[in-house]
Every structure is written in C-alpha cells, then in structure tokens.
Amino acid sequence: MKNKRDIAIFTMFGLAVFAGLLLFFSKINPLVVYDADDWLYVYELRKPIPLIHAWNPTKVFPETFMPLASYFGALVINPRINNYCFSLTLAHALFSSLILTLYFVHFPILFYKREFASFKSSVIYGCFFFLLHFISHMVNGRNNPFALWSENLTCFYNYTLPVALNAALVMHFMIYGGSKKWFEKSNLIHKFVVAVWIYFALNSNLYSSVVLATYIGTELFLILKRELKEKSFDLKTYCGCNWFNLLIIFCWVGTNILELFGGRAGGMQKSFIINLPITMGMGVFSLVGKNIFLTILDIFVFVSWRKLHNKKLTPTAERFLYYIGFGLIYLTFLSAAVEPTYIFRPQITICSFFYIFMGMIACLNELKKTNSKYKRAPLVLLGTLGLLFVFPGHLFCPYNYSILSYDKCEVLTNDIISQFNEAEQEGKSEIVLEIPKFTQEGNWPLSDFIGERYANALYKHKITKSYITVKDLIITEEKNRELDIPMGKQLFSL
Fold it and tell me: pTM, whole model, 2 decimals?
C-alpha cells in the first residue's frame, strides 16, 4: 500500500465485508445444522492429511474445519448463550465470514496494487464484485439460489468455502504478477503461510481446487507455448524455471488420483460417454442461465470490449479464456463421471463465475477509461429490482434441503435435544427417538440412520452428560404436524 490512508480504507472495507457476511450467515440467511450429513460432520474429526481408501481421501479442509467450528460453537459459545442451535450457526458464520472476507478483500487490492484502477475505483469494484455473488442467480422474489449458496451446511464447507479459498490464493499470486514472482519476492514466513494455504486449497474438493489448478496450469501452458513458438524449449530449463508451479500441478494431480481410490469414487457414474454430451450442454447453459440482467451486462461488456480491440485478443484476455475454458472442460468431465446435474449447481458454477466476474469488471474498467458512458452499464442490473415483485417472500434460498425457515430448523433441533434430555433425566441409557417423516427415499434429509449421529453429536458437544444409544428410530407424520414441518420441499412456503 502507498500510504496509511489506503491501508485504513482497505481495512475498513474488510471489516465491513466481514460484518455484512456475519450478519447474513447468522441472521438474514443463517447457516444451520439440519440433515444427516450435517450431523455427522459437526463432530467427526479426521486426521488433517490425505487418507487413502477413506470415503473422501483428500477433503482435508472441509472435514477438518467444519467439526472444529462446530466444537467451538458447542463448547465455547453455547455455555455463554445457552442456545445450542444458534451457537453452531454463529460459529460457522464466524469461520465462513473469515474465509469469504479473505476472498472478497483480495479483489480490490489486486486491482489497486497492479494499477488496473485508481484507489477509489478499486474499492467500488470490490463492492460490485461482492454484490454480484448475491444476485447471480436471482430470478424472482423468493428462495433464490446465489453464488455463495449450497444445499446444506456440509456442501457449503465442501464446495463454496473451498472455492473462495482457492480463488483468494489465485488473486494473491496475481497481486505479485504470478506465482513465480510471488515466490521470488516473499520472505520465509510468507512462504510458510502460503504453503499451508496451498495445502488446504488443494486438499479441499476436486470441484474447487480446479480454480487454482487452471490458473497455475495456464501459466505453465503459455510459457510452454511461447518457448515452442520461439524454438527455445528445453525440458531441463523449463522444469528448473517453473518447478514451483509444476510442484503445485503434480500435487493437484495427486489429489485426483487419491480420490479414485476413495469410497466416494465407487458411486461414480458408469455411463460416462452417455452423460458427457448432456453435461456439456448443461455446462454451457450454466454460464448464461442466471440473472437475466447480469447475463445482458456480461454480453454487452464483452462485446463492447472486443470491438474496442478490433476483435483481437490481448494477452490478458487470452489468459482468462484459458482459465475459464480449462476449468469448464475439467468440471464437465468430472460431472459426467459423478452426476451431470452437478455442473449446474451454484456451488460449482462459482468456479467459472469467479473468472467471469473478474474478467467482466476488468473489461468494464478498460471501457470506462476510453469513454465515461460505460460507467453507466452496470445500471442494467437495476432491472433485478423488478424481479423482487415476482413471488415476493424470503429472498434467498435457505441452507437446508427442505427449504425450511431457520426457526423451524431450530425448533426441530430443540425437540431432538429435549427427547435426549428427558431420557437422561430418567436415567435411561437408550432412547426411542421420534423424527418427522419425509417423502424422499430413506427419509432424507433426516435419514433413517441419523439416530446414531444425533447421539454422537450431542454427547461430544456436551449437550448430554452420558452417551445415550438410539435403540429405535420412529419416523412419524405426527412429528411433522407437531413441529409444522412439511414432508417435502416447500419452494413457496417462506
């Protein structure tokens, strides 16, 4: 930073982003522990290293920090506020806000330190970048998914937060002019911090780590392309000059190989060839199948920028096309192997949207320098306000599969706790637990095996003093009526 004033303003920007995210994830659209997966990962700690033959061999980041945040909420926050459900929500909101603040603050710093824009413009672009993540998929006034949304808390830790972690690392390298220049300029402590950062970024999720892999891979590819064109390529020299990037790519390939030997890989689709064209179509549609006004802005900005450069690509534009292209190809193949519809999920599309948002704002910044009229282009997004009057209600889709309000999720959690507490007070070591009925197979999202997970979580989080075994699980519609919980998703209930 050039002066203390700039540092102070960026600090204020970061604090404002953190406060806004904390408010959003704890009050406006709270993160909540709800389904069977959530209740497993709030207590089950794994070794923070890749584990061959585990269900998810390389999901170190989500399966380490989700339970750690949960234990913090249960053991540190809950004794002070005496509200277990909200204690977990607050703990996850705090941790998520920290990771996402790291992501959002890097964006304006990148624009400012690389002198893409003035200090004032960089902060404005940072605010714009922040806003885009919340209106990205808005189509009406109720239950809209958005770039930071996931179906449940587990997916939020498995997909959304890892994307932010990887994308923030990409921008960190960009600030220095690339990972190679960063390595040359950074001191030993900085290198250690980033090494830990890289470790958790790569060992997070295959869908998310591709954000870093495409950035590093593109750097390597363009150097190779240039040297081959100039007929100066030498393998030994190439590897020696790019060892750091090659190491990151080799580690990323290693995580892909390890995942092939995990339990999760056993459920991969066998009809890959059939799924591939379907997934390709859905992948292309995912880039435009979003907020119509944002799509219009993207098209207008990119077309205008292309005309400005006489339909020629600049080196920077070429890089971004490779970032998006390589990423989309990988996500398409991975989704075709796992589940074609994955590529259309917001927590997956954010991998491409990150580069698209950055590229669109960079093009808009360049257009604005040539003609001030372009600064009015984002006003087209005001059309989003008109969408709010279509089926008005709770604006954002909740972080749970049943699309229940937070209050109902909290009532459900308190009912489960009361059943365990009642059994404990009566001196019982076993319980017949009653839970609501759902129409999906296996009673998902409160699956027919959730009893043991409730018991483990409540005991390890010190809600019960002794371990109480769930002898039998009764799935009954009576609980639905008692707790006012529908048996299926209620898209228009909030």
Answer: 0.95
